[in-house]
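lol forgot to send this yesterday, sorry. struct tokens for the thing we talked abt
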């Protein structure tokens, strides 16, 4: 359920703040969201994969904490990021 190098690079390029940015909160949330969607698809076909389900819940929690951090720092950035990624309604 991990992302290959090309997918990671594409996500980094679309969400980075400056040219050498690879670890900002926006990039981390985008990568987590992509991994969450891939893992959710996997779990729909493999309902007894409890270890992956636990990993999914941990990723969702981490994404939630990162999003709350962005929301506390800059609400406009948070709203743009949520709209760009397509989460939260």
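and heres what i got for the seq, position by position
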């Amino acid at each position: 359920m991990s992302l290959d190098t090309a997918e990671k690079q594409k996500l980094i390029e679309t969400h980075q703040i400056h040219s050498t940015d690879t670890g900002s909160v926006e990039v981390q949330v985008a990568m987590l969201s992509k991994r969450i969607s891939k893992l959710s698809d996997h779990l729909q076909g493999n309902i007894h994969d409890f270890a992956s389900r636990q990993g999914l819940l941990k990723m969702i929690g981490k994404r939630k904490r990162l999003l709350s951090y962005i929301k506390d720092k800059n609400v406009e950035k948070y709203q743009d990021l949520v709209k760009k990624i397509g989460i939260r309604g």
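The chain has four helices and no strands. anyway ping me if u want another try
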